[in-house]
Structure formats: structure tokens, C-alpha cells
Amino acid sequence: MGSTEAEGLPPLPAPGTALVEELDKKQLIILRDGRKLIGILRSFDQFANLVLEDAFERIIVGEMYGDIPLGLYVIRGENVVLLGQVDPTREVPANLTKVTASEIKQAQKAEKTEVMLKGTMLKRMDFLDDVG
Amino acid sequence: MATQEEDTTVKEPLDLIRLSLAERIYVKLRGDRELRGQLHAYDQHLNMILGDVEETITTVEIDDETYEEIIKTSKRHVQYLFVRGDGVILVSPPVRQ
Amino acid sequence: MLFYSYFKTLVGQQVTVELKNDLAITGSLHSVDQYLNIKLENTRVVDEGKYPHMMSVKNCFIRGSVVRYVQLPAGGVEVDILHDATRREARGT
């Protein structure tokens, strides 16, 4: 931080080159809307706009997982939360079972409905307690 | 340079924050979060480093039957925390006598 | 540049990055850039059960704009140096 230290540091890397080492590797991308995409990183820029090849969305519900094929994606940087290299030896968490795209979509929908129902049910039960 | 006498004139908002260095301040953040801690560093974006920080998170649930508001707060302590400026709503310097 | 310079001094140390989506990741700081994008190595998600997708990820790049907090190692904060650097930065802007 001090000026003496700054002189000892190597020259600044060019802005927005942080992802060079991640090129051509399989990456997991978390988007701001919560979706998780997997694909091979082919290009990026200083905004973290990304090009993903052979991309798919990975959905996990309980013990099940499913992949929805997407193809070639250009992702606008501001929607990127995180990018992580996928360890090829453990791409799929050990305890999960693969299901089809339509099955996992259905499971995800069911899970969302259940969470909503649970919320309203709990509140109703609280109300009953008060009355009782 | 560091021993130079501190300029105590206030010409712009951030001067007030400069005068709060090493003091305990209150920071209100987006997402119903509040921090109280000692200010160790800041920049023009209001990125900050706070020390001995207490964070308070407030959640409000509305009972959809009785329309009662249930307000819950949770607190935690962090020794040193970098805070990104884009989440800051306001900073309140310590009260001066 | 104050925080960029500061984070560079923390490279190799353990930090916990808390994101605006409430995901919290602990890891060793690998690098940081001018946007305060952060790369972590040997990462561990604090609430692993809630983020099963992250189990196959050991290193990651976090976009600076999605960071809410970074919990800093106690040994990585020298308050006097920070105060001086902050005053210098304030004079410069």
C-alpha cells in the first residue's frame, strides 16, 4: 500500500484479463437470477461478458439433477455472479440421480409450489394457535 | 506526510467521513442491514473497512391472516469487514460534544 | 486504487466473501483486479447443503459488483497503515 511497496510489485495486469486461465475449460456460472449454467468458456471481456459453448442449465432438486441443453450462449457480464472451474472428476455430486429435462423442470415447479404452500400453511397454523 | 496536521474543514460530504477515521460509525445498508464499527479505511465509492463490527439484520414478515407485522432482528460480530460501497445507504459519524 | 492495493497485500490469505445473493464462500485469495473482482482457491461454501452445485467447484472468480462483504483475516489489517493510506487517497481525489 505504501509507495515503496508499490514499486516492488510487478506491473499491473491489463484490465479485465483475470479469466485468461479459465479459457477453454468447463465452468459453472451462477447468474443473478439464481440459474446455474455449465459450459466451456470460449471468450470474455473486461465486463465479464462471457461466451459459453455447449452450455446447459443444471437444476438440482433434492436427490435429483437434470440438464437442459442451451447451446452457444453470450452472457451479459452484469448478470454474472460467479464463475467456477468444474472439477471434471466430480462434475456430478456423488449422491444425485440423473433425470430428464422435463422431469427436473416438473420437480423444480413442484418444489416451488411446496415452499409457497408451506409458508401460507405455517401462517394459518399460527393463527389457529392464537385463537385456540 | 502522515504527520501533517489534519484538515478539519468540511467542504464536501466525504470530508465528514474523513473526520470519522478511527472512530465508531453507523452504516445503513441495502437489504435492511446495519453496521456499527470502527472506520479504518474508505474511498470515494464508500467502500470501507470496519473493525469490531456488529451487524444487525432486520426481517419483517406480515401475517397474511391478521396482517400483523412480525419484526425479527439478528446480530453477529465480525472482527474486520470490507464493505462494498454500492450497498451503502447512509453513514452516520459519531456524535461530537 | 486504495482497496485494490490493499487486497493485493492479502493474496494467499484466507478470506470469506459474502455475496449479495447471500452465498458466502471461504477460500484463499488468489488474485484481485481493478474492479475488485476476486479469485479464490480451495473454496468452501459456508452453507454447502443449500448450494449443491458448488460441490464440484474448487476455484472461482467472483464479479466485484456482486460482493456485499469480505471478512478479512485479523492478521491482514494494520489499522495505522490503512488510516494513512486513506488520508493520502482522500487528499488525492
Could you please describe the fold and organization of this structure?
The complex is a heterotrimer of chains A (about 130), B (about 100) and C (about 90). Chain A is α+β, with helices and mostly antiparallel strands. Helices cover about 30% and strands about 35% of the residues of chain A. Chain A is built from 2 helices and 6 strands; from the N terminus they run H-E-E-E-E-E-E-H. Chain A has a 6-stranded mixed sheet with strand order 5-1-2-3-4-6. The longest helix of chain A has about 30 residues, at about 100-130. The radius of gyration of chain A is 21 Å and the shape is elongated. Chain A starts with a helix and ends with a helix. In chain B, a hairpin with a 5-residue loop joins strand 2 and strand 3 (about 50-60). Chain C has a single domain (about 1-90), classed as Roll (SH3 type barrels). Chain C has a 5-stranded antiparallel sheet. Chain C starts with a helix and ends with a helix. The interface between A and C is medium-sized, with 37 and 33 residues. Strand 4 (about 70-85) of chain B pairs antiparallel with strand 5 of chain C. Chain A: This is U6 snRNA-associated Sm-like protein LSm1. Chain A: One of its GO terms (biological process) is cold acclimation.
Task: Kindly report the spatial arrangement of strands forming the biggest sheet of chain B.
Answer: 4-3-2-1-5
User: Radius of gyration of chain B, rounded?
Assistant: 17 Å
Which spans of chain B of ≥5 residues are poorly predicted at pLDDT below 50? none
Number of helices of chain B: 1
Q: What's the shape of chain A? A: elongated
Mean pLDDT of chain B: 90
CATH topology value of chain A:
SH3 type barrels
Percentage of residues assigned to helices of chain B: under 10%
Structural class of chain B: mainly beta
Oligomerization? heterotrimer
Briefly note the structural class of the backbone of chain A.
Answer: alpha+beta
Q: What is the rounded distance between the termini of chain A? A: 65 Å
Number of strand elements of chain B: 5
State the low-pLDDT regions of chain A, or none: 1-7
